[in-house]
Amino acid sequence: AQKVTQAQTEISVVEKEDVTLDCVYETRDTTYYLFWYKQPPSGELVFLIRRNSFDEQNEISGRYSWNFQKSTSSFNFTITASQVVDSAVYFCALSEASGGGADGLTFGKGTHLIIQP
Amino acid sequence: DAGVIQSPRHEVTEMGQEVTLRCKPISGHNSLFWYRQTMMRGLELLIYFNNNVPIDDSGMPEDRFSAKMPNASFSTLKIQPSEPRDSAVYFCASSFTGAVYGYTFGSGTRLTVV
Lengths: 117, 114
Description:
Distance between the termini of chain A: 41 Å
Number of strands of chain A: 12
Oligomer: heterodimer
Order of helices and strands of chain A: EEEEEEEEEEEE
Strand content of chain A: over 45%
Structural class of chain A: mainly beta
Largest interface: A-B, 26 and 27 residues
Strand content of chain B: over 45%
Radius of gyration of chain B: 13 Å
Helix content of chain A: under 10%
Distance between the termini of chain B: 36 Å
Number of helices of chain B: 0
Number of helices of chain A: 0
Shape of chain B: globular
Number of strands of chain B: 11
């Protein structure tokens, strides 16, 4: 069975610091997808990124970057020059696709990120 | 595109009452998922449908929970009878062929059972 572990329950940094959120996953499938979602205080789940298991290229989107390493089963998320608006709970999630790609997401427990002004 | 629409946004009910949560997926999406979020258990997949057919309901906590998808544009999650431990935020999500194209979540229904 698949599993996603976010060992950091809460992280607090001062604004403008860089911060990395860790995500480690377990799956027996060779084809799978990894996601990051942001949940701000308002409660909605905001999609940030999706990577498939065949694409290990790191990705950068503005201040956000993601490091995918199959060798360590990790998909870490870094925010550069953090801002107060980045304060939220961040979830890493996994979806196995061997069944045709229509399976649901398995979420980690989330990391509560607090950016202090 | 109006996104995934859930109703109601908030529901407060008394223990023992029937509760029905509603979801309208994005038009054209053929998969629909119900999740529950609690502090203790995090985000859990309850059930999902492909082309209106329930595929996996192993996450449904007990027989008090049931879900239906009578057509491609509507789904319900019913709890009967409700209990205080059912208090949670319930999210609906839809997708086109699942992970390949990602999942879009609704705003959630916050259920409080007193």
